[in-house]
Amino acid sequence: MTEGGAEIILNLKERLNDIISEGVKWEIFEAETATKLYEEIGKYKDDLSKNRFDNLFGFLQNALLAQTILAINKIYEKPSKNFQIRSIPAALKLLQNHSKNLKIEHREQLEQKLARWGVEEFLRTKSDQEVTEIVVKQIQKTLEAGDINGALVHLKTLRDKRIAHPESIDETKLPQILWKEIEKLLEVAKKVVGIIGNNYCGVCYEWEEGDYILSHDASLIANALSRLLKKINDEQLYPEQAIEPRHE
After folding, report:
1. Which has the closest alpha carbon to 28: 70, 83, 85?
2. What angle is formed at CA 131 by the lines to CA 128 and CA 135, rounded to 5 degrees?
3. Over 158-216, what HEC string results?
4. Which end of the chain has fewer CB atoms surrounding its CB within 10 Å, N or C?
5. For residue 103, what is the DSSP state?
6. Which residue from 110, 92, 82, 114 is spatially nearest to 24, judged by alpha carbons?
7. CA–centroid distance for 205 within its chain
8. Nearest-CA neighbor of 202 among 111, 101, 110, 84?
């Protein structure tokens, strides 16, 4: 390989790593953490209402929901001609346009992931370029599927309308389908980051078993909130001890 060719590959790897590690990774983490916090608050809705914390935590839930929807929209934002963005479609475009220049790391691991994802082609005899083209095709196929595309349209509509702000703090106030859409979109995003990050950037985002590493960190934050809410309940701050809201 010539010096110029090596420089091209390095630049492509750096650009891919920038998209994933400085963009998509953090949006996934924010969305997953916000979702877990939202659900954790919902588990204590009766206790929070009894202690007159419902307005506070209802407001926090609304902010968490808004953050989740904004983060997921950023994850799946389509590339722009005017400026560079960090999103899964932007990473796919780079893979597609430069498949002949990208080297796959941990090739056997990638083949196993693609097999679990439903790719039935025999990949062992294919070049890195051919496998990369299959990766792009498989991810695009997933994003264009009816349920995923429909979920993206729904969340984009919610973002564009700046999201309604209901007063209840019970997570069941949202349509069940919305939670399923959020979970599905996060699941797909983590799988994509696992492939691109592990096998093109050389950074481990997903264990071989398929577990997304940063999901553990999101759970730690949610567990911390759970301990706090349990303490609020154990303190028995009944309404007569709470400060009455002012009414002008």
Report:
1. 70
2. 130
3. HHHCCCCCCCCCCHHHCCHHHHHHHHHHHHHHHHHHHHHHHHHHCCCCECCCCCECCHH
4. C
5. P
6. 92
7. 12
8. 110
Q: Which residue in 114, 138, 98 sits closest to 198, CA to CA?
A: 114
Q: Considering the entire predicted model, what is its pTM?
A: 0.83
Tens-digit pLDDT profile for residues 16-52: 999 999 999 999 999 999 999 999 999 988 888 887 8
Question: Residue 97 has what pLDDT?
Answer: 94
Compute the C-alpha angle 28/33/39, nearest 5°. 130
Which of 48, 191, 223 minimizes the C-alpha distance to 110? 191
**Other residues' Cβ atoms within 10 Å of the Cβ of residue 48:** 21
Closest CA to 235 of 66, 90, 52: 52
| Number of helices followed by number of strands (H, E) in the chain | 10, 0
Residue 99 has pLDDT above 60, yes or no: yes
Q: State phi, psi for 147 to the nearest 5 degrees.
A: -70, -40
Q: Is the pLDDT of residue 168 over 50?
A: no
In angstroms, rounded to a whole number, what is the distance separating the alpha carbons of residues 133 and 160? 33
Going by C-alpha positions, the residue among 205, 209, 171, 208 that lies closest to residue 189 is 205
Q: How far apart are CA 113 and CA 98, in angstroms?
A: 21
The identity of residue 20, as a single letter, is I
The Cα–Cα gap between 85 and 19 comes to 8
